[in-house]
## 1
Amino acid sequence: MWISFILASLLSTGLVASAPPGFPSSGNGLWFTKPANVWSKEMLPVGNGYLAAMVPGGTSSEATQLNIESLWSGGPFEDPSYNGGNKQPGEQANTSLIMQSIRQNIFSSPTGDIDNVESLTTDAGAYGYLVSGISTTNSTVSGYGRFLDLDQGIARTIWTQDKTAFVRSTFCSHPTQACIQHITTDGGHLPGLSYVFSSALETGFPAPNVTCMGSDSLRIRGLAASRGMLYEIIAHVRATPISGTPTNPPIIRCVQFPVASGAPFNATIEVAGSTVSEAWVSWVGGTEYSMDGGDVAHRFSFRGSDPHTQLLSLITAPATATASFATTLSQHVADYKAALTEKFSLSLGQVSRLDAPTDMIRAAYRTDVGDPYLEWLLFNFGRYLLMSSGRGVMPANLQGKWANGDENPWGADYHSNINIQMNYWSAEMTNLDVHRPLFDYFQKTWAPRGTLTAQVLYNITRGWVVHNEMNIFGHTGMKGGGNTAQWADYPEANAWMMIHVWDHFDYNNDVSWWKAQGWPLIKGVASFHLDKLIPDTHFNDSTLVVNPCNSPEQVPITFGCAHAQQLIWQLFNAVEKGFAASGDTDKGFLAEVQAKRAQMDKGLRIGSWGQLQEWKVDQDSPTDTHRHLSHLIGLFPGYAIANYDPTIQGGLLVNGTHLTYTPAQLTAAATVSLIHRGDGTGPDADSGWEKAWRAAAWAQLGNATQFYHELTYGIFTNFGPNLFSLYDPADANPIFQIDANLAYPSALMNALIQAPDVASLNTPITITLLPALPKQWPAGSIKGARVRGGITLDLQWSGGSPTHASIKVDENVGSRPVRILHMGRVVGTFTTAPGLSQSFTNF
Ligand SMILES: *[C@@H]1O[C@H](CO)[C@@H](O)[C@H](O)[C@H]1NC(C)=O
Ligand SMILES: *[C@@H]1O[C@H](CO)[C@@H](O)[C@H](O)[C@H]1NC(C)=O
Ligand SMILES: *[C@@H]1O[C@H](CO)[C@@H](O)[C@H](O)[C@H]1NC(C)=O
Ligand SMILES: *[C@@H]1O[C@H](CO)[C@@H](O)[C@H](O)[C@H]1NC(C)=O
Ligand SMILES: *[C@@H]1O[C@H](CO)[C@@H](O)[C@H](O)[C@H]1NC(C)=O
Ligand SMILES: *[C@@H]1O[C@H](CO)[C@@H](O)[C@H](O)[C@H]1NC(C)=O
Ligand SMILES: *[C@@H]1O[C@H](CO)[C@@H](O)[C@H](O)[C@H]1NC(C)=O
Ligand SMILES: *[C@@H]1O[C@H](CO)[C@@H](O)[C@H](O)[C@H]1NC(C)=O
């Protein structure tokens, strides 16, 4: 949905030739000379995690598009019989039989494959979508400029009209949970303003009731769908009167529109012309959805309380209701800097460009040639987007929290076979504190219903499971319809996400969090996979494998998929590494994990054309350029390949012979697979995220040229004029997918600093400095990078080589051995200890 803020009178045309006044001199921002028209290519995003908004940068008329993070159609709100896409408990016996025969068919199939697992899937039911509205605006005026200031987290529009210069600023404050839009002029007198709320552009979206709340606030109440969840927005308008302005009639008044009997109520707030020097509207929003209602005790209702009381307390809090605008703004900026820019910063030696708008810089960008300024800007923008969408109650979804219209691509859901993972890749390493909503989401919406799914679908009575496509209503079953197994058959989503849980602990060593949330999550998932691994009766090699499985979004449906085996192996290592800190005394569980880990297939096999096999049966095609790099998960973001250790991962039985690969052999095979997988423009898709993944993987292999090629190719192909990553950039109204935006910083970081996980706490953490530095970034610096083990790392380089590195260890860590490498040479070693700091200058 959207709110429209309307100003009086129209204007003449003109463009600015350099960055608009107020644009950060650091160059850290996006600027444009025309208002936005197309949502995904041109508008500018702001958000505080709870709320998101897209700012078109209109002038006399501005239509700011709003969203609330939990505003979804579908789920139990729309369909009382909604059950998370699960088989009914009464079908358990039958499902077990089906599962048994599927497994048997796969093992006994000569190819190790079968056609489908359709009989395990269920109709998605009222799956739901993140809903919101659209808006367009067309005005151009003299002295026009709009920008997103990434130093302060503010979208601004400036223009001149009737010799008066206007400035409109929009931002969402995390401390107050409100978004604010402020307008002022240099002349000190604003023309008349009116504020209305509209959902008119929302097809199928029921019009809400808009009513006056006092003389200066609009209360907007509606349903997300005809039987959907209740939402409410309160918008409060304030202004600073020009001194001596009489207050009768009132400067600000709320007027209830006359409407036909039975039609939804509608109202407007008006600010009288020439009475105020500045005016601003603050809005807060919420729904009756609650993650806390997603368990058996709440009958999976996900229903919380009416949001009104909570919103009222937010909108009447002094920081929003009585503080001056300057105070509200400075509180926002201080919070923004503390969360985003003070703890971490990067320089690629870029030269700030203030002479050309961002869309022109983007249009001039070329693969391989590159432009360090744009590359740096995209890095900062990616972190900005994660922080602006990741700090609410829900995690960032396929579009962060920005959604256009009442049906968004792929439901703007939580695709959990690469996309959501990728969203969070940069969080720990660039020191962004955004992970907690993600973990709450697993605990509250995945684990409860996923416990039922484990029972009904797999006859497993410990732990829990989910599949690929996840909504906010605990959609844990396999989402069916057509032969969707390649999307739906992904019971390793939980294992992959647990790597994030483990990493959070590994980076921060927050023991009380680990005991309360991290460990129970990992234990639940590991328990499930312990029971799900079964003996391989195709090869009879005494290993344990998954069956059925497929690589994410790719057939065949087979057994022992490399992706799944590598992930589960990493999961079991995390159990062992985290056991002592968990306080858990269940030694039998640990022993079982260790035993099955020893026995399981490790998912590392070199195939007939020198490739790393994607499946246990050697059936990879050299011309398969599929978008996912599933079997290379152990290269990046994992470590089963990157830190391959033949003493614990070797020992394969192949054709009756025991084989152990050397690390060099395994790396060579991963390289062959990566080469054959292509550049991320495949027959199946040409999206940005697959190129970001490839860039990170090439960096992991230490190949700076290929890293830079993929990074720049992704920018060239998939990033729009507003730097949003686009699925189909040539489309007039392309699809926005946030994953490439959010993965970009981690891919770039992987060229500068690498420290992949290790199988055991006794194995040294190896930090490699500048492993894949492209020649386009000869000099630069990083401040505040985070490395697992509770390490903060600063790094400077020049002439393509490190000149200075320093580490500081957190106060709350134990001893971990660490080595620092550059160009294959050990340039430092230390053992972590609380508060340790050390510098390295000998490279
Ligand atoms: C479920 O598993 C248990 C334990 O292995 C087994 O005894 C039972 O028969 C299975 N139930 C079904 C319905 O297959
Ligand atoms: C068991 O599943 C089969 C195959 O899906 C189906 O045809 C049959 O009706 C089911 N039986 C019961 C008792 O649900
Ligand atoms: C904006 O311009 C586009 C293209 O010229 C037009 O289709 C659209 O209706 C205009 N929108 C408004 C709000 O005037
Ligand atoms: C309220 O009225 C305004 C002005 O006519 C209109 O633009 C807006 O769409 C209406 N809002 C709703 C929710 O119907
Ligand atoms: C709007 O208010 C009317 C009258 O109170 C009520 O019947 C209707 O359900 C409300 N509509 C919505 C969408 O809340
Ligand atoms: C593996 O063992 C099963 C019996 O458990 C047998 O049916 C199958 O033929 C064996 N496969 C091979 C390749 O030996
Ligand atoms: C295993 O045996 C098959 C069939 O003889 C052969 O095609 C394959 O290359 C062998 N694999 C290895 C790794 O030797
Ligand atoms: C990087 O990869 C490309 C493509 O495989 C290869 O030609 C080149 O030699 C590699 N460079 C290095 C330094 O390994």
## 2
Amino acid sequence: MSQGFRTRNLLISHPNMNKLALYVSFLHLLFAHAVAQDSPPPYIAPDYILLNCGSSAANSTSLDDRNWEGDSHSKFSPHNIQTISNSSTPTEQIPSVAQVPYMTARIFPNNFTYSFPVSSGLKFVRLYFYPAKYADVDKSKSFFSVTANDFTLLRNFSAFLTMLTLEPPAAVVVKEFIVPVLRTQYCLNITFISLDSYAFINGIEVVSIPNNLYMDNTNGTGIKFVGFDTIFYTFDGTTTLETMYRLNVGGKDVSGVEDTGMFRTWVDDSPYVLIDNFGITAYDLPNDTIQYTTETPSYTAPEIVYKTFRSMGINATANLNSNLTWNFTVDAGFNYLFRLHFCETLQEVVYLNDRVFEIFINNQTAERDADVILWSGSRGIPVYRDYIVLIPNGNRRKLDLLLALRPNVVSKPQYEDALLNGVEIFKLNRSDGSFGGLNLDGLVVPTSPEGNEKLTERKRTSLRIMAVIIVISASVIILGFISFRVSKKAKILGSRKVGDSNCLPLPSHLCRHFSFAEIEAATKNFDDGLIIGVGGFGNVYKGYVEDGSSTVAIKRLKSGSQQGAHEFTTEISTLSKLRHRHIVSLIGYCDEDREMILVYEYMNCGTLRDHLYSTDNPPLTWKRRLDICIGAALGLEYLHTGANHLIIHRDVKTTNILLNENWVAKVSDFGLCKIGPISVSITHISTAVKGSFGYLDPEYFKRQQLTEKSDVYSFGVVLCEILCARPPLVRTALKKQVNLAEWFRECYHEDKLDEIIDPCLKNGIKPECLKKFVEVTMSCLLHDRSKRPSMKDVVGGLQFALQLQGSSCDSPNFPELDD
Ligand SMILES: *[C@@H]1O[C@H](CO)[C@@H](O)[C@H](O)[C@H]1NC(C)=O
Ligand SMILES: *[C@@H]1O[C@H](CO)[C@@H](O)[C@H](O)[C@H]1NC(C)=O
Ligand SMILES: *[C@@H]1O[C@H](CO)[C@@H](O)[C@H](O)[C@H]1NC(C)=O
Ligand SMILES: *[C@@H]1O[C@H](CO)[C@@H](O)[C@H](O)[C@H]1NC(C)=O
Ligand SMILES: *[C@@H]1O[C@H](CO)[C@@H](O)[C@H](O)[C@H]1NC(C)=O
Ligand SMILES: *[C@@H]1O[C@H](CO)[C@@H](O)[C@H](O)[C@H]1NC(C)=O
Ligand SMILES: *[C@@H]1O[C@H](CO)[C@@H](O)[C@H](O)[C@H]1NC(C)=O
Ligand SMILES: *[C@@H]1O[C@H](CO)[C@@H](O)[C@H](O)[C@H]1NC(C)=O
Ligand SMILES: *[C@@H]1O[C@H](CO)[C@@H](O)[C@H](O)[C@H]1NC(C)=O
Ligand SMILES: *[C@@H]1O[C@H](CO)[C@@H](O)[C@H](O)[C@H]1NC(C)=O
Ligand SMILES: *[C@@H]1O[C@H](CO)[C@@H](O)[C@H](O)[C@H]1NC(C)=O
Ligand SMILES: *[C@@H]1O[C@H](CO)[C@@H](O)[C@H](O)[C@H]1NC(C)=O
């Protein structure tokens, strides 16, 4: 028994779930004993493989009594294993590190694949690393990638550097993934790709996962996307997960052999709880057994997870003024799957509304009224809830993410309290099938001076690389560059002095340099009365230049904002070259005195939106609307294909389509959004989704990446508005809390479009024209990006719609196409 416990402490040192107690408490022993006695039988995994890499013993037993097969003569190893790899033992042996599987390693100078014949379905893949010195190879030089079938589990991974970041310090690194094996694959190939000098591995574990345990789509709605009321996430069977955290909330560490047959480790949550309200934990475990159900089968989590909990405590006054909060560090630029486990076990909590609480993840509401009795039906019945959380890329690569619970006061529950029993947090792979590269943020510098130097150097390199990436992504997205050229260019820009226009590639023949005095004169010293727009980047003023003979729009970027002058100038040099009838022209700029000011042509008739909603302006005729949307589409087509590089607007909406005195539509504000945050910020998304009828491409939520087809989607939303604009649609959509595109789609499928078309247009649209227009709109709004038309096709479709309107109509209101 005690041997098993020792094992647990040694075997399971997951890098991110490593807050393991290093002692064995007597109580703990009792707990484990009790659990073992009345737990339901564990899940029997059809595939269960433990491979002791570098070992030639047929069979070795780890401290937790599991049998590991040596890989030297294994059927999972390639037959030429002896010639393409070496087995080795670490020269440094730390007593606390278990013999099996860590005291043997397989070393690969080149690519190497283990092939595990397994059934289809999800598998846990656990990789065990002990980054020690093996023979004459340098542990700090080992960088490698690991793939599992089509997924990249680890990219440019250094077990040694990862080990240095472990908190609290540990000598071994365990990585856990959930990998799908398709019906057509029959095999799980785990490949080690050595990058610099060599790759190595100490142990590999493959364990089947019951169908429907994770990433299950049987709940047809999909998984709630935290912070977005109308967006749900569905797994399509092509996603891998990396385990970040698995906590037995309010309880003790649970070792793999105490799990329900999948050998997951669950750790005590106390290191993650914010100290200002530590809550209380179970002091007396319930005698009743946990009653598992078909929704929450017994393998979901061990009984001990559901029997122990953390709640806020008995002082309702105190509870109402605080949150019970956990703090997790995660990498930015990924989606995360949160699974929260609940089970009411207290005698007092019996009825609905006894204990109701709110759940926040990353400051966003995940549940307004979590009532575990409502969810489960009764005390003693466990339930879990899944959530997807989007952590966009930002200035920082690692973020602290808070999970907070607090009583729901609105429902006036019997107990003003909150409850949690378990948490699992997984990172979803990116669209390229990977989990990102080495992340050295927060690296602990090693004690040896030699390693120290190397590390600082590495860290510096990685910071430099990061700086380059930031410069690039902050400027207009230019695809088609090979990365080498990009970084070269960025370095050149980066080495120049800010504000020194001579050095900058600013095209004075294309765009004018204004002095700050000129700008001040033009805006009457930034007179508030001249403000025509307010945005996150600063204000837009109407201004008069050339002795008042010429009207311009002047955008003054907030000083002190994070965007550097480099990005500003890069921006200008790109934007000033864009010249198109349907693009708002950049006339000039001012970069004196750390000011960042852009001067644009002035558009007399304002934004398209000003003519669609809540306005005293007379309604636009259908013909004019068609002209406007064709113009805007031509502008976007130019950005996508006409300029030297692909330019993605990223913020297409009716307020960014401006109209001049002749009703010519021009696209504005491309570029400025790129001077701002590096990627779309969370507030930007929220505004886009909630405030502006959801212009944002739904695929963004999956891929966290905007493409030119995202502009096509947003343009589809603009088309909806052009057709339906005045209030009925918008009001209904807002009331129903659906986004405009979804609402439009629904009405289309229910054949109710005529109910939502702008009443001002009712009799003016020819049916053929309407049919074509709606067809174009629906195609832009397709969920699958690849099926959406290009802007060129959109232009073609709209021009055709205009012709249909013109040719079948003899009304003078609808003259023929003039372009
Ligand atoms: C390893 O040993 C266990 C028990 O000692 C035995 O059940 C198992 O069959 C052995 N496996 C192999 C591959 O020899
Ligand atoms: C195995 O180790 C020996 C001695 O260090 C070395 O000469 C040989 O190249 C290695 N073989 C492989 C495949 O790494
Ligand atoms: C190793 O695998 C990578 C990725 O599959 C491939 O690009 C590379 O050429 C391979 N190297 C060798 C030596 O086969
Ligand atoms: C891997 O990462 C290290 C340190 O971050 C870097 O020096 C090296 O160039 C990277 N290798 C590859 C192939 O990306
Ligand atoms: C795994 O590797 C084997 C041998 O190289 C190959 O035949 C098989 O197609 C691979 N399977 C997958 C799913 O990649
Ligand atoms: C299905 O998912 C929705 C949305 O997250 C949730 O409200 C509902 O409770 C779920 N149903 C079940 C049975 O889990
Ligand atoms: C569990 O059983 C013991 C002895 O039978 C009893 O003293 C204790 O109060 C019970 N605990 C609970 C939570 O019911
Ligand atoms: C409950 O908490 C409040 C506010 O934190 C405190 O003032 C009060 O003394 C507490 N009551 C008890 C009984 O501890
Ligand atoms: C969360 O944890 C990180 C790192 O452990 C720490 O820097 C940060 O201050 C914590 N956040 C809060 C709100 O306590
Ligand atoms: C509790 O958390 C929510 C969401 O993060 C936050 O809005 C609220 O201010 C917090 N309350 C307290 C008392 O910290
Ligand atoms: C979340 O709320 C905390 C305090 O309630 C605040 O410090 C933090 O900046 C917020 N984080 C985000 C991403 O809004
Ligand atoms: C994960 O990777 C696969 C394979 O590259 C890809 O098809 C899938 O879309 C990715 N999942 C997510 C959520 O991006």
## 3
Amino acid sequence: MASSKKQKTPALSTIAVHGGSPRPEAGEPVAQPLVQSVNYVQHPNTAEGLRYTRYGNTPNEEVVQKRIAMLEGAEAALVLSSGMGATACALLALLRPGDHLLSSSWIYGGTRKLFNEEFVQMGIEVSYANPDERRVWRNTIRQNTRVIFVESPVNPTTRVIDLAQLAILAKTQGVALVVDSTLASPINSRPISHGADVVIHSATKYLNGHHDVLAGVVAGTASYIEEVRRKMIVWGQAPDPFACWMLERGLKTLDVRVSRINENAMKIAEWCEKRPEIGKVHYPGLASHPDHSLAKKLMDGFGGLMSIELSGGAAAADRFIARLKLITHASSLGGVDTLIVEPRYSSHAGMTSEERAAIGIPDGFIRLSIGIEGAEDIIADIAQALQ
Ligand SMILES: *Cc1c(COP(=O)(O)O)cnc(C)c1O
């Protein structure tokens, strides 16, 4: 029986503000100081305690690493210079030549390039599973599979993967389950609590949340994070102290930002679903979404990413975006400003119209990353641009 004196874990909102930073004493600053120094005075006669920014062990790096580990419910976390740096080092720490990486086919374009163009050249076998196919994971796992890699929710279709189910298979097969949880943020989902072994974020998105820092995160067991750190050190993927200081500041409002974004996105999705100009709305919070019940089970909020398909197709989408006055036409996602993109001009520009349609992104498909502005103002902007 758990002792009644057992300390209650603080709320995520409390961890987001205080996690990992020592309580300041009288006369000390309330805000974490920025220590913009690459090297540190060393103790004489020992290699112990050597600090260097590329090792990820300087003050601003360590505070933000601890805070993110606490938010994810992980033993440890490492902050890297970008989401791509995080994905690369996380997987290089797990895979050797001859190993097999089984990836979801619904992943970020940059990640797919890393797998196809770099990992394959290093002698790592890569294959893709379409998560919509029944028993696909069980049927495509190999003797030499070391990692199952998924992104959930998926950009830009907002599909949700059954992590709990996948974690059971990964455990019985002795395979590491690695989850890119960028779109969820730890406020909406903590994959380790569903059985994942490793969590990756592009901290450029929700974790920082202000469109002004490039960073990445890997979270997992302490011994695994030391392996990732070794990769980070030799491949030179450590972040600058200033980026960590900015990220730490951004994290303080993570819970309030994501809560507002969840509320806004739900209102906007419901409004969009009633409009005749919009043929389809992809948002996991809607009962019409194919993974709605799964999202309700695995997630505490449905997030800020949604996609809409305009009935008028490509021409209607171009016209709509040109008319927007508040919503900004820009790539990326997860920040305080509402952003909009057409995948055919950004993430999926390299594909033909038919190829895009085959993966669920027809012409007229628009992705929105909802911000923290007033929902009624975002809706008014959409309404005037639809006219
Ligand atoms: C943006 C993004 C990445 C890459 O992150 P960077 O910080 O741009 O390197 C990886 N995965 C997902 C899901 C993303 O949205």
## 4
Amino acid sequence: MSRHLSPHVSRPAERCVPPTAGLPLALSDLFGRVPGADSDLASGLARAFNLPWARIECSGTAALVIALTALQRLQPGRNEVIVPAYTCPLVAIAVAHCGLELRLCDLQPGRPDMDLDHLERLCGARTLAVLPTHLAGRVTDVAGAAALARRTGAFVIEDAAQALGARIGTESVGTQGDIGFFSLAVGKGLTLYEGGVLAARDPALRAACTRASEALARRHAGWELRRTLELVAYALCYRPALLGVVYGRPLRNALRAGDRVDAAGDLFDLRIPLHRPGRWRQSVGLRALGRLPAFIAGCTDRARRRRAQLESLPGIEVLGDSPVVPGAAGIWPVLLLRVSDAARRDRLLDRLWVAGCGIGLPFAHALPDYRRYASVVPWQDAGALPNARDFAARVLSLSNSPWLDDERFERLCAALVAD
Ligand SMILES: *Cc1c(COP(=O)(O)O)cnc(C)c1O
């Protein structure tokens, strides 16, 4: 430990670190020929990650809406969807969009995985789907959840929104459930500014997803123009010199206003845009995809080194993949830290989040504790979902962006033990 280092994790001229390790776009991704053999992004992704089938949608949330719609048509008598109680609020919004009922599953103590005893009690004749979730790239136990779901005739949708590139042995995550989905949003790795990917093995489910997608997600010139401009702006601005303006300043404003929901990037519209992502944006993703495997490998190396160093700090645990999944090899957009107690976690957040050094929250709250989403999340009394709420109160995320350099990481470690 470098005790002599300044406790100030950011020096005045230092630049802001993005909250996750997103793959930076090169300007050459915007133009020119697509290298390689694949003519479209879906087949490029299928080849790169050994997916049996892939379909591009306009967001991860849209992919989930399409998956739920497809399953609903196959099982119209079922209307409940079980999700982990600590996950992206967009999941709750998607379930409400489909007119389905959300059921919240508690987490395992100290882990982002669903508690299988609670899941077993929630599963029943009305369960349409269960959503095991690879939060922050950490591989979860899909097989355990699937065994419980299938016993009651429910489907499994694997939420791999934050886990494109994570594997179990040689298999990609997202392929063990009946349907899997990935996000191509900003900050989740490869990006089209907004985008999503559906995956499925079974030909009947692929056909059902395709039908639902064709019915729900039509071409829409207005949305495509907007996303095109946003993607170009992202390609220009996602670089160290500009992040302070496009990310750091709004972050500081949100924190100054005491708004952790805004600071965590959890302010979502309750209406979900559904449209077909255009060819040009998909070609940008396909050009960038060539660099993704090496980028993921670099993130994995850095995470391995930093995880060992963070684990040596008192009262800080770095969460790994589920220990019950042999061969799990997650990806590392962030390192998920669990702090010894909630008060200490809050003091660290108060001090470090504004510094723009990569410390923040994956999500601001467990789902029932957002006032903003009360209309799409069932009310829970204060004693319910104890593990999910404890997890939400003690977790921190640390960016694994290559722009957080070793020297600054050392200072951050010193600041983490200074509390
Ligand atoms: C981001 C996210 C989604 C939604 O994906 P978008 O592409 O942002 O719509 C769903 N689930 C989880 C766990 C996520 O992190």
